[in-house]
């Protein structure tokens, strides 16, 4: 049974992410954890030292969080009934990042699926701050869902890679299961530096070819054109899912730290899965 964590701030974008999870894994036995975190507007010493009830506040924040989670759970069960799915709600007084990391470990979470923007996401920002932090820190795969994404099955998957990492089956289990369930094709795009592949890279590529079997197609693109190449490929091949391995050598790191990315315009208009390098 898959265990999937679904953070929500009750925004439209977070609902789109939850809907995506329910539909992508509709044929899979899953437990979905609906997670909402809350923090009081002002942390008073009394709030920290005592329970809110003891100082006469009543836990308004927790009650509101649980109430909205229960409404959301009810809505999902009515709109997307599925005997293979179980929905559990979790409400926590914590930062979103810390709670995701703690829940991932305590509940043996296989995957986190979340929106890229919060309720007040700015259009010019690639990912919201929370999403970036979760992608960087998570020890399990994370799928980020862009705003206004209309669900389509992940039939065409783009997988940019530099072949600098080994591709153990365990690391790519979720990707391989999605490929199997949806009869997907994986387009492995190698970011070429202009030099031939090293022996290690050749070994890693062969490993990836064996894992994907007949479901993989392989391409070469120049390193200095990777962002344009990904954008172009998404448009031409009608890509439904973008997948990368979190690796210090890849341009994935640059997406979050280089202002130039905003100028170039890296367009993520499909779900984006990041697999941790662990």
From TrEMBL:
Pfam families on file: Usp
UniProt xrefs under CDD domains: USP-like
Span of domain UspA: 1-146
Gene3D superfamilies: HUPs
Taxonomic lineage: Bacteria, Pseudomonadati, Bacteroidota, Flavobacteriia, Flavobacteriales
Family: Belongs to the universal stress protein A family.
Protein's name according to its UniProt entry: Universal stress protein
Entry superkingdom: Bacteria
Database matches in InterPro entries: Rossmann-like_a/b/a_fold, Universal_stress_UspA, UspA
């Amino acid at each position: 049974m898959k265990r999937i964590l679904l953070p929500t701030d009750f925004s439209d974008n977070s609902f789109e992410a939850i809907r995506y999870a329910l539909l992508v894994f509709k044929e899979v036995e899953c437990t979905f954890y609906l997670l909402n975190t809350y923090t009081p507007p002002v942390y008073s010493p009394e709030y920290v030292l005592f329970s809110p009830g003891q100082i006469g506040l009543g836990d308004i924040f927790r009650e509101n969080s649980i109430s909205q989670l229960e409404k959301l759970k009810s809505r999902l069960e009515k709109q997307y009934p599925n005997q293979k799915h179980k929905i559990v709600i979790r409400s926590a007084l914590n930062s979103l990042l810390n709670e995701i990391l703690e829940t991932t470990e305590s509940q043996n979470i296989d995957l986190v699926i979340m929106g890229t923007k919060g309720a007040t996401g700015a259009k010019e920002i690639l990912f919201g701050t929370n999403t970036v932090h979760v992608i960087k820190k998570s020890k399990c795969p994370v799928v980020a869902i862009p705003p206004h994404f209309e669900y389509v099955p992940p039939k065409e998957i783009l997988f940019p890679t530099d072949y600098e990492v080994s591709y153990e089956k365990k690391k790519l289990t979720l990707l391989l299961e999605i490929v199997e369930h949806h009869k997907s094709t994986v387009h492995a795009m190698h970011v070429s530096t202009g030099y031939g592949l090293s022996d290690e890279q050749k070994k890693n590529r062969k490993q990836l070819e064996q894992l994907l079997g007949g479901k993989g197609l392989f391409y070469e693109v120049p390193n200095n054109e990777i962002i344009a190449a990904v954008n172009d490929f998404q448009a031409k091949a009608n890509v439904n899912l973008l997948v990368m391995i979190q690796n210090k050598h890849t341009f994935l790191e640059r997406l979050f730290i280089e202002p130039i990315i905003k100028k170039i315009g890296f367009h993520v208009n499909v779900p984006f899965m990041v697999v941790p390098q662990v």
